Amino acid sequence: MGQETLLAEVRAKRVKTLLEYGADPYATCLQRSTISKKLKGLVGSVITISEPDDSLIPKGYVQSAILHDLVEDSRIVGPFFKLRNLDIDRRDLKGKTLLLSACSSVKGPDTLIEIPPSSVEEPPDVYEAKALWETSGADFTARDDAGRGLLHVAARKTTKTFQELTDRGLDPMVDDENKQTPLDVAAACEKKKILALFARKKEE
């Protein structure tokens, strides 16, 4: 067993113990805010990506939902999925569901999730996260407070995730509140494979 795997198991057990003793799975924390930036869109439009301004939060920080951050960073989330009453469509302070956070991840929503067993004698359950989103009834049409759907966030990450979502029937031409489509985001982020994918679908 490698050191990285061992550390992951230790951390998973710690998280599991904390949850068993009543830790709030929807707790929030303060994190350093990211710098706003502007990206050129598909037809010369400008996309602004920035953190919200909240006078109650110290300057330079944003309030963040821990579970959503763990999902987005592809960290240890297995113990949370073990919870019976987990709200799979729980939204963070920006209106993002857990699935929206997963699509924001570099690994996408189909990374492997290991759920600790009930006892030490049992092996852990390993799931493809994509299957968990399906069976748990996650809302694939959810949008955050800015009107961004799964394709908007996936367009900044992996072609595979974008393709899987369009294969499910999600529309890459739906606008968010800034009148930006997922394809505008892909163009702004220079995701040429995603744009080529859409061009092929359009020809079919």
Description:
This protein has 204 residues and is α+β, with helices and mostly antiparallel strands. The protein has a single domain, classed as Serine Threonine Protein Phosphatase 5, Tetratricopeptide repeat, CATH 1.25.40.20. The chain contains 9 helices and 6 strands. It has a two-stranded antiparallel sheet. Strands 2-3 form a two-stranded antiparallel ribbon. A two-stranded antiparallel sheet has the order 5-6. It is globular and about 55 Å long. This is Ankyrin repeat protein. InterPro entries: Ankyrin_rpt-contain_sf (IPR036770). It comes from Xylaria bambusicola.
- Low-confidence regions: 39-53
Approximately how much beta-strand content do the residues carry?
5-15%
Spatial order of strands in the largest sheet: 1-4
Task: Write down the overall mean pLDDT.
Answer: 78
Task: Summarize this structure briefly.
The protein has 204 residues and is of the alpha+beta class.
Tag the structure with descriptive keywords:
204 residues; alpha+beta; Serine Threonine Protein Phosphatase 5, Tetratricopeptide repeat; two-stranded antiparallel sheet; two-stranded antiparallel ribbon; 9 helices; 13% strand; globular; Ankyrin repeat protein
